[in-house]
Amino acid sequence: MKRNMKQFVVGGLAALLALGGLAAAHATEPKKPARVPVPAISVNKDKAEKCVEPTDVMRRDHMKFIQHQRDETMHKGIRTSKHSLKNCVECHADPKTGSVLGKDGFCATCHQYAAVTIDCFSCHTDKTEKRVSANEPASLERLVRLSAPAAGAKP
Amino acid sequence: MSLNRREFLGLTAVAALATPGLRLVELAQARAPEETATKLQRWGLLIDAAKCADGCDACVTACHVENGVTGHNRPATDPQWIRKVKIKDRQTGYVQTLPLMCQHCEHPPCVDVCPTGASFKRADGIVLVDKHICIGCRYCMMACPYKARSFIHEDTKDQKPHAPRGKGTVESCTLCVHKVDRGDNTTACAEACKKEGHEAILFGDLNDAGSEIRKRLASAPSTQLRPDLKLNTGVRYTGL
Amino acid sequence: MHIHYRSIEGRSVGFLALLGLLGAIVAVGLGAALYMEHNGHWLTGMTNQIVWGMPHVFAVFLIVAASGALNVASIASVFGRQMYKPLSRLSGLLAITLLVGGLAVLVLDLGRPDRLTVAMTYYNFKSIFAWNIFLYIGFLLVVAAYLWIMMERRMNDYSKPVGVFAFTWRLILTTGTGSIFGFLVARSAYDTAVLAPMFIVFSFAYGLAIFLLVLMAAMAWTGRAFGDAVFARLRNLLGVFIAGAFYFVLVYHLTNLYITERHGIEAFILRDGGQFTAAFWLGQVIVGYVAPFAIVYSRLGRSRAMVALAAVLVVLGGIAQMYVTIIGGQAYPMPLFADKDIIESSFFDGQVAAYTPSLPELLLGVGGIGIALIATTFAVKVLPFLPASLADADADPHYKPEAA
Q1: Contact, C4 vs C387, CB < 8 A?
Q2: Class of the CATH domain delimited by B5-238
């Protein structure tokens, strides 16, 4: 019994080490041509102004800026636009779709490439203010039904 | 946070002294975007049930349009930030209607019970859900005496940029916090009610002695819902 | 006297079949959770009126039963009853596995279970829920340490102080669980301090019932002796706990019946509540208290099968009790206006909320029981939790055959 346990533990540790080694080897591997092509990120070119921070800073730290701003806005009511998600979307949304998601969406392409899930847009809209307002009639229709007095229980 | 007049004046004086160049009138105006919401304000509503018209739900529609609150025609699970209720006096049979929403308590039970602190009260008295840290446990919905909160049961889309909302989290009336921060000095429901000519909903700063809401509260009887719970709600009712 | 423990061999077809069955139950439960999370809660029976449903019934039941399952160990180490000593390890094991099963259900029902790390890193220390997170994690650690001390011979001397600590912890834990409801001022069914001690006594009964069932199955299926005197002691203890639970239910309802403000909720649960009234009288009272009590204290109690039935009834009654407490408590409308009735609302104000449990909810709840049992089954194979024999003379040093 005891022996079995020991073997089990030793085996588990060995497997872990092997995995760790593999990961390390992978990290130091010389650069092979990437299997997944680097996405062509289309920044809104027609917007003349620059991003709120230099590109390399944004690449590395955009999530920190957004998260910091999120807490400031949510809890303190600070509504500066410089690092707000809304501001990101306003500038970077695809002029055609009005969205930062989708096949060529500014946020989606890069996050897909980097295999990092974004949680922002399960709650936040991925569209610019203008696009959202354009959707008004549809949302209104649903609302009228919503505000109608409830007839009976759950469908 | 119930300041009496003297305390309030004292606080404003301190604030005025501490910030050179700040005049008292500026307090009533909008904050700059970089300024923090403070305890100097306590936002609230005064609802005059006597003026609330039966059959009118302009406030409900306006709120849900303003905040992009949409449903799926499933009444039991669709969210409602504000709703109209009709009440009947048990003894006299007197019937009246009134709008019901988050009461923005000074001591909100939803904030007490929230395990992560997602349910919180801002310094200016507005009770909100921080959906970033809401885990969807619904304990706040168990605790709220006003049934003010809704759980988002389904995927959402077409949210308003100022009102993010997503499946698996809890939401409720924000007192149109985006409008408050912008300095609109009103809410969608109050605006809509005014537009209908009823003027049953008045938005204002309960701490500001010069505000209309304060003056009206000081000149006529008003009540809170479930006053026995001593939650000191930011939403008050008259004509009830 | 020295007690022998032995892990089970766990090679038989029966053992593998049991693991397979429990594994299937767990898999179905997890599938149900995935289904609900993916599509959203709208296709469960839960609504904005009944915000906690079947998963919470099972989760709270399991959590309460977990703290109760530790009692057998406490009786041995805290109250010094030798006869319960051989049962201590299984008692500690069940305390852990039942809690894990309950917590799994609770977490899997969250709106955002992917944010478990948020629940572990952001705390509001005024929240009873937040306290409970610490109480649950602490309980797992304390009981694990307690088990180690019981199993490691060099550490046996410390089993009393650690046992006392674990016993105290479990009392606080169940107080916390009861207070999840007890602290809610909004709803007429809650908002009372009696819920905390009531949940503690419930836990005694539910925990012992599950313990007894698992013990009987384990001893019978591995062909180990289980003496009549030991069995009778556990059976009688179950009877005492059932009576205790009934006493608290009586106090709770009598208090509410006296207070005019609470007549509404009492009329609802006891008389007008439809499925909840049925769940209370038939489920909680008849199945949960009257029938098992009658079995235990009548001639029927001499039959082990009947006592096993009584334990099953206690479990079913316990689930009914949680249904009445959790769902019935929410179904009754909140008193928004002291002297006015709400006659119209688009949000179901002033109406009794409808609730029909959905299959996925039920499967998730049962999946929690599956998690607890599969973990137990696996654990008794890898470590010596079970006594080699519970023959009267082996279990109790004071046992005198002629007295029996």
Answers
A1: yes
A2: alpha beta
